[in-house]
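Final report, closing paragraph on structural work. Over the funding period we assembled a curated collection of sequence-structure pairs, and we close with a single example.
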Amino acid sequence: MSIAMVDYGMGNRRSVLSAFAHIGGDLVATADHDELRVADGLVVPGVGAFPEAMRRLRAHGLDDVVRERAAAGVPVLGLCLGMQLLFDGSDEHEGAAGLGLLAGRIVPLDTRGLKSPHIGWNAVRWQRTAALMAGLPDPAAFYHVHSFVASPQDPSIVLGMGEYGSPFVSFVEQGNVFGAQCHPEKSSTEGLALLRNFVGICATVHAAP
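Its predicted structure, as stored:
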């Protein structure tokens, strides 16, 4: 079994690779379409601006590959900006269309006067049970760095909520598509446990007939 990180030149790739190595996950960073097409799971990282991230994904044809693999039932996990890219589009800067795997838009976080961006640890309360957060406490603490948040069209895809000035969506799940607004790779024990759960999800899909 192998998991591939979609390498489009943005995101803290080294930290993500180190986190997966720590939990024994076989993660490779690649922009090679053939490698991505044989992987049993995809990780979409991201740090920076939504429009530029989508420009880079499109420039390398990686947007279509991610859509194709998600449609084939391969588990896809978006991290931070990577989670935002899973949605239809974003209002950040000039705005941009996203991957369209999840219905909804990315909008500014309403901090209600608190400093933006939101940087630091935040308690996440689970909205329902799911394999991605199996064994994690409720609430669980994760490290966040963001000034935009997801506004899903379907509230039922929300897996976890945080609060910074106002409540915000921290985790989503719809079928085989998962998103974490936080940085699990920087979130110590609970973040590593969540990544381990994702590896387990990929292994289950890989083993299925």
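Helices lie at 13-22, 33-38, 50-59, 62-71, 81-85, 188-207. Residues 188-207 form the longest helix (20 residues). We thank the funder for supporting this effort.
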